[in-house]
Design a protein that fits this description.
By secondary structure, this protein is an alpha/beta fold. The protein has a single domain (11-137, 146-162), classed as 3-Layer(aba) Sandwich (Rossmann fold), CATH 3.40.50. The protein has helices at residues 26-38, 57-60, 87-90, 105-114, 140-162, and strands at 11-16, 44-50, 65-71, 81-85, 121-127. The chain has a five-stranded mixed β-sheet with strand order 2-1-3-5-4. α1 crosses α5 (140-162). The longest helix has 23 residues, at 140-162. The radius of gyration is 15 Å and the shape is globular.
């Protein structure tokens, strides 16, 4: 009889954002770059979470680390890359989603923490958006920031994988 191994990879990289809202789609865009670099690393799973919000909760269970890739309005210049870790991620603001089509990382993290499903290590790699409006594609400033954001993400991933 064959058994099924249900063990999940210890590191989850989660790209969040709506690709139909311009720079809000930076999470999935950055995730595509990360997937190319870590495609052969079994300890890393990449998921495009889009705007699924709380529907992603089941993907957090059993992980050692969570790395969120998302647009992050931290009051910086468009294209600036931020790296937050631990409580800084959890404290960056929890707001409620106003529609079923709107994902919310803060709400997801708060719920995972309440249910004791939050990984021990949590990171956010965020890029300051220039514009979030109905349009396809990233602004020039955000698109230019992708290589820098990828380097930051790889640095975090390599640190987590080294333990």
């Amino acid at each position: 009889m064959q058994t099924c191994d249900l063990k999940v990879p210890p590191v989850l990289v989660l790209g969040l954002g709506n690709i139909l809202l311009g720079d809000d789609g930076v999470g999935p865009a950055l995730l595509g770059e990360v997937q190319r670099v870590y495609a052969e690393v079994p300890a890393v799973e990449c998921i495009d979470g889009g705007t699924q919000g709380l529907a992603l909760l089941g993907h957090l269970s059993g992980r050692q680390a969570l790395i969120i890739l998302d647009a992050f309005a931290g009051g910086e210049q468009a294209g600036d890359v931020s790296v937050l870790e631990g409580t800084a991620v959890l404290n960056c603001g929890v707001t409620r989603s106003s529609t079923a089509h709107e994902g919310n990382a803060g709400e997801l993290l708060a719920t995972a923490q309440l249910l004791n499903e939050l990984p021990a290590q949590v990171f956010l790699i965020g890029i300051q958006p220039e514009r979030v409006r109905t349009e396809l594609g990233l602004s020039e400033a955000v698109a230019r920031a992708l290589p820098h954001a990828l380097a930051k993400t790889c640095g975090v991933l390599d640190r987590v994988l080294r333990g």
